[in-house]
Amino acid sequence: MSNSDRAMITSREQPAGMISGYPMLLVLFAIPALFVWELSLFDGVEPGPLAGVSMIVGHIFALLFVLFGFYMIQPNQGVVITLFGDYRGTDRLQGLRWVLPWMMRKKISVRAHNVHSERVKINDLRGNPVEIACNVVWRVKDTAQAVFDVDDYKAFVNIQIEAGLRTVGARHPYDDMSDDDETTLRGSADVVSSELQTELNERLKVAGIVVDEAGLTHLAYAPEIAGAMLRRQQAEAVIAARKKLVEGAVTMVEMALHQLSEKKVVTLDDERKAAMVSNLMVVLCGERDTQPVVNAGSLYQ
User: Fold this and answer.
1) Domain, as residue range, for 144
2) 119 shares a domain with 196
3) Which of 108, 130, 164 is where one domain is finished?
């Protein structure tokens, strides 16, 4: 296998198969009792110097051997076990545990972590500078990948959150006043949050980390264009409102002419229809109140 092929192999978590620490705790208490019992066997006869030293050293070694094998696992915590650099598994069983003292143990939390990112400045789909920040809830799913496949998984998460936020933020415009139902950062929070979560899961799966929740917590135009964009939003809002107003007025005028003609209330030629349409459009679209003019004579005078 070449070095390049070895670099592509990812770690996979496997159970360590360690033993409970409670039986070994009894062994720990039994060692001093055994030492006292062995002393009683001499029945008042002092053991030789070599025998006495050997007995004391042996019991101390046994005591230290058992003592240094203990470790504790709290709920939602795992311990990665290695032997001379070789991964031997992950122990997730909570409580007092025991392993051979020369096997290395690294505790890692598999609880949910909450990260609030710093505000970053990005360019949205239209190139407008935008300040954006997010909140991400993540946890370690595969402890072997988190420990062995990345150098520092917590720093890796923070960097990838910023990179994912920039990627998703650049896909959509900040806002859109059109009627195209375009996905925007401001108006489509659920869609953007779902995209951000998917993007982060794709980026963090190499580290054995899964994102449970992601959402924007801050979104605003950059200060240098905030004033101009506010005026632009106001102008777009006015244009959109005018468009709706004109569409409604045209519909009302069309309905009025149709009903007048259908019910034969009055017969209008093209010129009078144009005048009526003009008057109705002024009344419906004007910003000021109109003053009615009563025509007491003929319609054509």
Assistant:
1) 113-221
2) yes
3) 108
In a shared domain, residues 118 and 217? yes
Task: Look at residue 115 in the predicted model and tell me its pLDDT.
Answer: 94
Specify the amino acid at residue 187: G
How does pLDDT run across 117-175, given as a tens digit for each residue?
999 999 888 888 889 999 999 999 999 999 999 999 999 999 999 999 999 999 988 87
**Joined tokens for residue 218:** 């801050």
Query: If we measure between CA atoms, which residue out of 221, 229, 230, 232 comes closest to residue 121?
Result: 221
pTM: 0.70
Which residue bears the tokens 């598999």? 110
Q: How many domains does the chain have?
A: 3
